[in-house]
Specification:
The complex is a heterodimer of chains A (about 90) and B (about 775).
Chain A lengths: L1 E4 L13 E4 L4 H11 L3 H5 E2 L2 E2 L3 E5 L2 E2 L13 E6 L5
Chain B lengths: L27 H6 L14 E7 L5 E7 L1 H5 L3 E6 L9 E3 L4 E3 H6 L6 E2 L5 E7 L2 H8 L3 E6 L6 H5 L11 E4 L2 E6 L2 E9 L2 H7 L2 E9 L11 E6 L5 E5 L4 H12 L6 E5 L15 H10 L5 E4 L2 H7 L6 E9 L5 E13 L6 H7 L9 E9 L13 H19 L3 H7 L19 H10 L1 H4 L10 E11 L6 E7 L5 E5 L7 H13 L6 E5 L16 H28 L6 E4 L2 E4 L6 E3 H7 L8 E6 L7 E11 L6 E11 L6 H20 L30 E6 L21 H13 L5 E2 L3 H11 L1
Classes of the chains: A alpha+beta (about 90), B alpha+beta (about 775).
Chain lengths: ~90, ~775
């Protein structure tokens, strides 16, 4: 199962847990799975079929250019982060 | 995922034919002879000229706008205000995240309320720029002036005036019901912060304030737009992202992107400030309203300062604890950043960079995005990170001083490495933090005695270390083979710092041809696939990669064509160093030029395509060593010697890498010593000219020495890491630490101009 790191200000939805092991082969499956066990997660992270515009997801340390479509491996780490720009 | 740490190695030892050389940039001749076409040079038949009416108040309700007298002036052809925007959806997205439409449009033309001095309210198009300017003075606007707030702490205060009645604080996307100037609060936590500080033998905590600073590009914003009778809009503009302009114009005007064509003109600097869109949709509206005439708008320097996005001022408290042996055990930051008039400061990036250079087990970081009555902030090289480093790198310096450890040794002892977990969660991939610090330590500058004073002042040395993530994003490139053995390379990244050259070099290396045989050009949005901004240090990384893919596509087709000509299987043919040859028959070979000449008779043209959206941009570390002389009587500070060391992964064109390192360092020095928006209490910028907004010139500075470190980025075919931003992160703290070394006072405000230094010295007496 992948290890999902829960942002500290979202841990109210996970009973204070900062990490959860979740089944899923894509970020979308991970979020859906999380939302079943911890309702409200999907609303916080997603807008329709995609991540909210100001959130990115990093899988195994790399920010995914394809958002919730990113593949997740059995022992992956998943982090939800503020979106970054640059000058 | 568990990552076992292995020491970084300098991987970029591979020799290339083209990559790593220093050819002349293809746009150089036109630029030095004045033939290059910038936006202000553009002339079209029937051209009208437009100017913008801007708010004289930092915060006011707009009661009414009356164009009657302005439109009666001879030569005036059209006038527009926010009322001319058509009805549309509630949210805008032009490739840089979602934004409420009223905020997005409000920063183009204010509706009902102005939120900063200089905000655009209306615009007039006329037959000459002078008539347009005269017409502005004939527009009657009735204001109800409101109290202004100018700093993040002011905006966060309980009794602060509220800028937006529809802005409610979010907490990592959780919408609260608190109407506030705090647009967003977020937090990163790792370990146990209380336990960490309890374990510390020494704790240093300080609060820092930095001022609003502009990117200071030499070319003002400009645009010419033609809204054709057939409904298509053509925009010629100075921008860091033609496709961003296309999307923004389409969003603002509620038309589809296929109706908008953007031609990027040459660009005289941007540094992040030419990503946001300001007058482009206004020029289009004026074009339509004037009867479909082309309309040109060129900002004055004052308009650039007051009407476009600077980088934010900030208020930051940073606390770090360490053991007596130098091991850092806890770090805490509270970062409050000014978003300007609408949400969107770079506090998120600041939070992700504030401790990223170090391996610390217990960390808490709180970030606040706060709206204030200043221009909406825009990106500026590594947005947010220089503010954060100004705080962190001074605390690290103070810890080193108190622990009596060499400041670079302390950084090396705590340096992040591959496998170090960042405070925001992810683990560092292969990075060059240690290599940069070691190169700094070994450098002649650091090994030499302090540079002697030139004017009898006190001298000191400081160091700083900075990090920037870099970004990937989408890029496209097409390469077509000419029958004289050259190739035309078409790409979509506007060229600010010599990227035509570095992108062309990717293709030349793959094809085994000379750099001079690749003819790069930047295309308009109708002529190339979607390409994201020239920003985030992504262009050489991502568009270079697209060129690499396009060249490999060409290479594959050339092999197929040669196999067809020779009547052999393509698997038996290879192409190396510009020669196509049979792997088995030495008689079968020809050069790239020979084959190119045969294309038309053997199957037609060959066109390669590359389209990428890569992850793994590979962050870059950069450090600076700075010697200063401070006059203790006046506070004037001179930089005597300055060295910058940066990890470039692989320097495709070392001269342009060095140029980025020098440019970022110089901008950082200006930010450190002089630059600021100097505000009156009612929110008026008192220094909106280059005479009074003092940026450093070559006469103010010594030669900036550069050292390129190459820890190859495994995420790129040639190991590239973007180099446009990390170099501006820590010059400010290196200067601050040098001032401390020289005169013994810790500078907690930026800029560290003579007045600030004297104030600090006097307060110490």
């Amino acid at each position: 199962m992948a290890t999902v790191f829960i942002p500290s200000l979202m841990q109210e939805l996970t009973d204070g847990q900062s990490q959860l092991d979740v089944l899923g082969s894509t970020v979308r499956e991970i979020i859906n799975q999380l939302d079943e066990s911890h309702p409200g997660v999907k609303d916080r992270l997603m807008d329709g079929f995609k991540l909210k515009g100001n959130i990115t997801v990093a899988v195994d340390g790399e920010v995914s250019p394809v958002g919730v479509l990113a593949k997740v491996q059995e022992n992956s780490e998943v982090h939800f982060l503020p979106a970054l720009g640059g000058g | 995922m568990t990552t076992t740490y292995e020491p970084n190695k300098v991987l970029s030892n591979k020799e290339y034919k083209v990559v790593g050389t220093r050819p002349i940039r293809p746009d150089g001749a036109d630029k030095v002879t004045g033939r290059a076409q910038y936006g202000a040079d553009l002339q079209l038949t029937g051209l009208l000229y437009a100017k913008t009416l801007r708010s004289p108040h930092a915060h006011a309700n707009i009661k009414s706008i009356d164009f009657t007298k302005a439109l009666a002036l001879e030569g005036v052809k059209a006038a527009v205000s926010a009322k001319d925007f058509p009805e549309t959806k509630d949210t805008a997205n032009y490739g840089l995240g979602d934004s409420p439409m009223n905020y997005f449009r409000g920063n183009i033309l204010a509706d009902k309320k102005v939120l900063y001095k200089g905000q655009a309210i209306a615009a007039v198009a006329a037959t000459s720029v002078h008539i347009a300017e005269a017409a502005l003075s004939l527009i009657d606007v009735e204001y109800e002036v409101l109290d202004a707030i100018l700093t993040a702490p002011q905006g966060m205060a309980k009794d602060s005036p509220i800028l937006h009645d529809d802005l409610f604080t979010k907490e990592f996307e959780k919408q609260t019901n608190v109407n506030s100037n705090i647009a967003e609060h977020f937090q990163h936590k790792m370990g146990d912060i209380d336990k960490g500080f309890n374990e510390a033998d020494i704790v240093v905590e300080r609060t820092f304030d930095t001022s609003t600073v502009h990117q200071g590009y030499i070319e003002p914003h400009n645009v010419t737009a033609l809204w054709n009778d057939d409904g298509r809009v053509h925009v010629w503009t100075s921008t860091q992202g033609a496709f961003t302009v296309r999307a923004a114009v389409a969003e603002a005007l509620a038309i589809t992107v296929s109706k908008v064509k953007v031609t990027p003109m040459e660009i005289g600097g941007g540094f992040g400030g030419k990503i946001n869109v300001y007058e482009d949709p206004v020029a289009a509206l004026l074009s339509k309203k004037s009867g479909h005439n082309p309309v040109k708008m060129v900002m004055s320097r004052a308009e650039v300062f007051e009407g476009t996005g600077p980088t934010p001022g900030s208020h930051m408290t940073v606390k770090i604890g360490a053991k007596n042996n130098g091991k850092i055990v806890a770090a805490q930051a509270n970062l409050q950043m000014e978003a300007g008039a609408y949400p969107g400061s770079p506090v998120g990036a600041a939070a992700m960079c504030v401790f990223t250079a170090y391996d610390i087990s217990n960390v808490t970081i709180d970030g606040y995005d706060v709206v204030v009555n200043k221009p909406k902030t825009a990106a500026y090289r590594a947005p947010g990170a220089p503010n954060a480093a100004f705080a962190t790198e001074q605390i690290i310096d103070e810890l080193a001083e108190k622990l009596k450890i060499d400041p670079l040794e302390l950084r090396l002892q705590n340096a992040a490495k591959e496998g170090t977990r960042r405070a925001d969660g992810p683990i560092h991939p292969r990075i060059g933090c240690v290599e940069v610090l070691e190169a700094m330590k070994e450098h002649d500058h650091y090994q030499s005695p302090l540079t002697p004073a030139k004017n009898g002042g006190k001298v000191g040395r400081g160091v700083g270390l900075g990090f920037w993530f870099n970004i990937g994003m989408q890029s496209a490139c097409n390469i077509s083979v000419n029958n004289d053995g050259t190739v035309n390379l078409v790409e979509g990244s506007t060229d600010i710092g010599g990227s035509r050259a570095s992108i062309a070099m990717h293709a030349a290396e793959v094809l085994g041809i000379s750099y001079d045989d690749v003819k790069p050009q930047v295309a308009d949005t109708d002529s190339i696939g979607y390409t994201a901004i020239t920003g985030g240090s992504r262009t050489t990384f991502a568009t270079g990669w697209a060129a690499y893919e396009a060249a490999n596509d060409v290479k594959s087709q050339l092999i197929d064509r040669a196999a067809t000509i020779w009547g052999v299987d393509a698997d038996s043919v290879e192409m190396k160093e510009g020669i196509i040859r049979s792997k088995t028959d030495t008689e079968l070979n020809m050069t790239f030029k020979d084959l190119s000449a045969q294309l038309n008779d053997t199957g037609g043209p060959i066109v390669g395509r590359g389209a990428v959206d890569p992850s793994g941009p590979g962050g870059s570390f950069c450090g600076q060593i700075c010697d200063v002389e401070v006059d203790p009587e006046t506070g004037k500070t001179d930089v005597l010697r300055f060295t910058v060391v940066q990890d470039a992964g692989k320097a495709i064109h070392p001269s342009y890498v060095e140029g980025q390192m020098q440019g970022g360092s110089v901008q950082g020095i200006g930010w450190a010593l002089n630059e600021e928006y100097y505000y009156s209490d009612d929110g008026r910028m008192n220094n909106p000219t280059f005479l009074d907004y003092r940026m450093p010139t070559s006469l103010d500075l010594p030669m900036i020495d550069t050292v390129i470190v190459e820890v190859a980025n495994p995420g790129h075919p040639y190991g590239v890491r973007g180099v446009g931003e990390a170099n501006i992160v820590s010059p400010q703290s290196a200067v601050a630490n040098a001032i401390k070394s020289a005169v013994g006072t810790r500078m907690q405000k930026m800029p560290m101009n003579p007045a600030a230094i004297m104030e600090q010295l006097w307060s110490n007496e």
